[in-house]
Amino acid sequence: MKTKITRLALLLAIGSLMPVAYAQEKTTKEKETKTTVVEEKVVVGPEKGSIAAALGDSATFSILTKALQVTGLDATLGSHKGTFTIFAPTDEAFSKLPAGTLDKLMLPENNEKLRSLLLFHVLPGSFAMADLKNGEIKTMNGEKVEIDIKSDTKQVEDSKIFKSDVVATNGIIHSVDKVMVPHSLDGFAKLDEK
Q1: Shared domain check, 62 and 8
Q2: Under 8 Å CB-to-CB from 163, ≥6 apart: which residues?
Q3: What angle do CA 26, 19, 6 make, to 5 degrees?
Q4: What is the pLDDT along the chain (194 residues), one digit of tens a residue?
Q5: Sign of CA dihedral 70, 66, 64, 183
Q6: pLDDT tens digits along 92-113
Q7: Where are the beta strands (DSSP E) in 51-182?
Q8: At 24, phi and psi to the nearest 5?
Q9: Kind and range of the H or E element at 171?
Q10: For residue 26, is it within any domain?
Q11: Of 17, 51, 69, 102, which residue has the fewest beta carbons closer than 10 angstroms?
Q12: How many CB atoms are located within 10 Å of the residue 188 CB?
Protein backbone atom coordinates (compact mmCIF):
# COMPACT_ATOMS: atom_id res chain seq x y z
CA MET A 1 0.00 0.00 0.00
CA LYS A 2 2.80 2.27 0.90
CA THR A 3 4.37 1.62 -2.49
CA LYS A 4 1.12 2.52 -4.29
CA ILE A 5 0.86 5.79 -2.34
CA THR A 6 4.46 6.63 -3.13
CA ARG A 7 3.88 5.90 -6.83
CA LEU A 8 0.68 7.94 -6.81
CA ALA A 9 2.44 10.86 -5.11
CA LEU A 10 5.26 10.58 -7.58
CA LEU A 11 2.87 10.57 -10.54
CA LEU A 12 0.99 13.57 -9.14
CA ALA A 13 4.24 15.43 -8.61
CA ILE A 14 5.40 14.67 -12.15
CA GLY A 15 1.96 15.56 -13.49
CA SER A 16 1.96 18.86 -11.69
CA LEU A 17 5.38 19.69 -13.10
CA MET A 18 4.47 18.89 -16.67
CA PRO A 19 2.00 21.75 -17.18
CA VAL A 20 4.58 24.16 -15.79
CA ALA A 21 7.19 22.86 -18.17
CA TYR A 22 4.69 22.98 -21.03
CA ALA A 23 3.64 26.51 -20.10
CA GLN A 24 7.24 27.66 -20.01
CA GLU A 25 7.91 26.07 -23.40
CA LYS A 26 4.83 27.71 -24.86
CA THR A 27 5.82 31.11 -23.49
CA THR A 28 9.28 30.74 -24.97
CA LYS A 29 7.82 29.82 -28.37
CA GLU A 30 5.39 32.75 -28.20
CA LYS A 31 8.27 35.10 -27.49
CA GLU A 32 10.17 33.70 -30.45
CA THR A 33 7.25 34.19 -32.80
CA LYS A 34 6.67 37.71 -31.54
CA THR A 35 10.27 38.69 -32.16
CA THR A 36 10.43 40.65 -35.40
CA VAL A 37 13.24 42.49 -37.06
CA VAL A 38 12.37 46.06 -38.00
CA GLU A 39 14.50 47.64 -40.67
CA GLU A 40 14.57 51.40 -40.57
CA LYS A 41 15.25 53.45 -43.64
CA VAL A 42 17.37 56.42 -42.80
CA VAL A 43 16.14 59.49 -44.62
CA VAL A 44 18.99 61.86 -45.11
CA GLY A 45 17.94 65.46 -45.42
CA PRO A 46 19.97 68.52 -46.21
CA GLU A 47 23.00 69.06 -44.02
CA LYS A 48 22.53 71.57 -41.24
CA GLY A 49 23.29 75.12 -42.31
CA SER A 50 23.31 74.31 -46.05
CA ILE A 51 21.45 76.31 -48.70
CA ALA A 52 18.73 73.64 -48.96
CA ALA A 53 18.32 73.53 -45.18
CA ALA A 54 18.07 77.34 -44.94
CA LEU A 55 15.47 77.44 -47.73
CA GLY A 56 13.54 74.55 -46.17
CA ASP A 57 13.47 76.29 -42.79
CA SER A 58 11.85 79.39 -44.28
CA ALA A 59 8.12 79.64 -44.99
CA THR A 60 8.98 82.10 -47.78
CA PHE A 61 10.55 79.38 -49.95
CA SER A 62 8.15 76.43 -49.62
CA ILE A 63 7.52 76.16 -53.38
CA LEU A 64 11.23 76.40 -54.21
CA THR A 65 11.99 73.77 -51.56
CA LYS A 66 9.39 71.40 -53.04
CA ALA A 67 10.72 71.99 -56.58
CA LEU A 68 14.29 71.28 -55.42
CA GLN A 69 13.09 68.02 -53.84
CA VAL A 70 11.17 66.98 -56.98
CA THR A 71 14.28 67.42 -59.13
CA GLY A 72 16.76 66.03 -56.61
CA LEU A 73 18.62 69.34 -56.47
CA ASP A 74 17.97 69.48 -52.73
CA ALA A 75 20.73 66.86 -52.39
CA THR A 76 23.20 69.06 -54.29
CA LEU A 77 22.29 72.26 -52.45
CA GLY A 78 21.97 70.37 -49.18
CA SER A 79 25.49 68.99 -49.25
CA HIS A 80 28.73 70.60 -48.14
CA LYS A 81 30.39 69.40 -51.34
CA GLY A 82 30.91 72.51 -53.44
CA THR A 83 29.76 76.10 -53.05
CA PHE A 84 26.86 77.81 -54.80
CA THR A 85 25.01 81.09 -55.09
CA ILE A 86 21.27 80.90 -55.56
CA PHE A 87 18.91 83.63 -56.68
CA ALA A 88 16.00 82.19 -54.74
CA PRO A 89 12.48 82.98 -55.99
CA THR A 90 10.01 83.39 -53.14
CA ASP A 91 6.58 81.77 -53.06
CA GLU A 92 5.20 85.12 -54.19
CA ALA A 93 7.56 85.06 -57.18
CA PHE A 94 6.28 81.60 -58.17
CA SER A 95 2.69 82.88 -57.86
CA LYS A 96 3.44 85.38 -60.66
CA LEU A 97 3.90 82.54 -63.17
CA PRO A 98 0.98 82.07 -65.58
CA ALA A 99 -1.86 79.94 -64.21
CA GLY A 100 -1.12 76.20 -64.43
CA THR A 101 2.56 76.64 -65.36
CA LEU A 102 3.96 75.53 -62.01
CA ASP A 103 1.66 72.48 -61.92
CA LYS A 104 2.82 71.51 -65.41
CA LEU A 105 6.49 71.95 -64.44
CA MET A 106 6.01 69.68 -61.41
CA LEU A 107 4.81 66.74 -63.56
CA PRO A 108 7.31 63.84 -63.72
CA GLU A 109 7.59 64.10 -67.50
CA ASN A 110 8.77 67.73 -67.15
CA ASN A 111 11.39 67.04 -64.48
CA GLU A 112 14.31 68.05 -66.72
CA LYS A 113 12.59 71.32 -67.68
CA LEU A 114 11.99 72.15 -64.02
CA ARG A 115 15.59 71.22 -63.24
CA SER A 116 16.83 73.52 -66.01
CA LEU A 117 14.63 76.35 -64.71
CA LEU A 118 15.98 75.93 -61.17
CA LEU A 119 19.61 75.64 -62.27
CA PHE A 120 19.15 78.94 -64.15
CA HIS A 121 18.92 80.48 -60.66
CA VAL A 122 22.16 78.87 -59.39
CA LEU A 123 25.74 80.00 -59.92
CA PRO A 124 28.75 77.79 -59.28
CA GLY A 125 30.77 79.39 -56.50
CA SER A 126 29.95 81.77 -53.70
CA PHE A 127 29.12 85.36 -54.72
CA ALA A 128 28.22 87.98 -52.14
CA MET A 129 26.46 91.08 -53.47
CA ALA A 130 29.78 92.96 -53.39
CA ASP A 131 31.27 90.29 -55.70
CA LEU A 132 28.58 90.65 -58.37
CA LYS A 133 29.41 93.02 -61.21
CA ASN A 134 27.38 94.36 -64.13
CA GLY A 135 27.37 91.98 -67.07
CA GLU A 136 26.63 88.35 -67.80
CA ILE A 137 27.49 85.35 -65.69
CA LYS A 138 27.06 81.67 -66.52
CA THR A 139 24.55 79.67 -64.46
CA MET A 140 24.51 75.98 -63.58
CA ASN A 141 22.17 75.19 -66.50
CA GLY A 142 24.78 76.50 -68.95
CA GLU A 143 22.95 79.70 -69.92
CA LYS A 144 23.94 83.19 -68.84
CA VAL A 145 22.05 85.71 -66.71
CA GLU A 146 22.42 89.46 -66.88
CA ILE A 147 23.49 91.15 -63.65
CA ASP A 148 22.56 94.84 -63.27
CA ILE A 149 23.89 96.47 -60.11
CA LYS A 150 23.08 100.12 -59.50
CA SER A 151 23.24 102.21 -56.36
CA ASP A 152 19.47 102.00 -55.81
CA THR A 153 18.58 98.68 -57.48
CA LYS A 154 20.14 95.29 -57.87
CA GLN A 155 18.75 92.93 -60.50
CA VAL A 156 19.47 89.62 -62.12
CA GLU A 157 17.66 89.35 -65.47
CA ASP A 158 14.40 91.19 -64.75
CA SER A 159 14.20 89.97 -61.15
CA LYS A 160 14.83 92.40 -58.35
CA ILE A 161 17.17 91.20 -55.62
CA PHE A 162 15.49 92.40 -52.45
CA LYS A 163 17.31 90.41 -49.77
CA SER A 164 20.92 89.51 -50.29
CA ASP A 165 23.90 87.84 -48.69
CA VAL A 166 22.17 85.18 -46.60
CA VAL A 167 25.20 83.04 -45.84
CA ALA A 168 24.91 79.25 -45.72
CA THR A 169 27.66 76.72 -45.06
CA ASN A 170 27.88 75.91 -48.77
CA GLY A 171 27.19 79.28 -50.35
CA ILE A 172 24.99 82.36 -50.46
CA ILE A 173 21.28 83.01 -50.96
CA HIS A 174 19.88 86.13 -52.64
CA SER A 175 16.06 86.43 -52.64
CA VAL A 176 14.44 87.53 -55.92
CA ASP A 177 10.92 88.69 -56.70
CA LYS A 178 10.44 86.85 -60.03
CA VAL A 179 11.14 83.41 -61.43
CA MET A 180 13.74 83.78 -64.17
CA VAL A 181 13.12 81.81 -67.36
CA PRO A 182 16.04 80.49 -69.41
CA HIS A 183 15.85 80.94 -73.18
CA SER A 184 15.74 77.16 -73.59
CA LEU A 185 12.28 77.17 -71.96
CA ASP A 186 10.76 80.05 -73.93
CA GLY A 187 7.32 78.98 -75.07
CA PHE A 188 6.98 76.13 -72.57
CA ALA A 189 3.72 76.26 -70.59
CA LYS A 190 3.35 80.00 -71.22
CA LEU A 191 6.53 80.79 -69.29
CA ASP A 192 7.33 83.67 -71.64
CA GLU A 193 3.95 85.31 -70.85
CA LYS A 194 4.94 86.68 -67.45
Answers
A1: no
A2: 174, 175
A3: 155
A4: 555 555 545 444 455 544 444 444 444 454 454 444 444 444 456 688 899 999 999 999 999 999 999 999 999 999 888 999 999 999 999 999 998 999 999 999 999 999 999 999 999 999 999 999 999 999 999 999 999 998 888 999 999 999 999 999 999 999 999 999 999 888 776 665 54
A5: positive
A6: 999 999 989 999 999 999 999 9
A7: 84-89, 122-124, 135-138, 144-149, 154-156, 159-168, 171-176
A8: -65, -40
A9: strand 171-176
A10: yes
A11: 17
A12: 17
Closest to 163 measured CA to CA, from 93, 95, 98: 93
CA 17 to chain CA centroid, Å, is 61
Domain housing 175: 51-193
- DSSP-derived letter for residue 106 is T
The Cα–Cα gap between 96 and 132 comes to: 26
Task: Say yes or no: 7 and 98 in one domain.
Answer: no
DSSP code at position 58: -
CB 140 within 8 A of CB 124: yes
Q: Answer yes or no: is 76 within a domain.
A: yes
Which of 114, 123, 130 lies closest to 64 in space, CA to CA? 114
pTM of the model: 0.74
The whole-angstrom separation of Cα 143 and Cα 137 is: 8
Number of structural domains (the chain) is 2
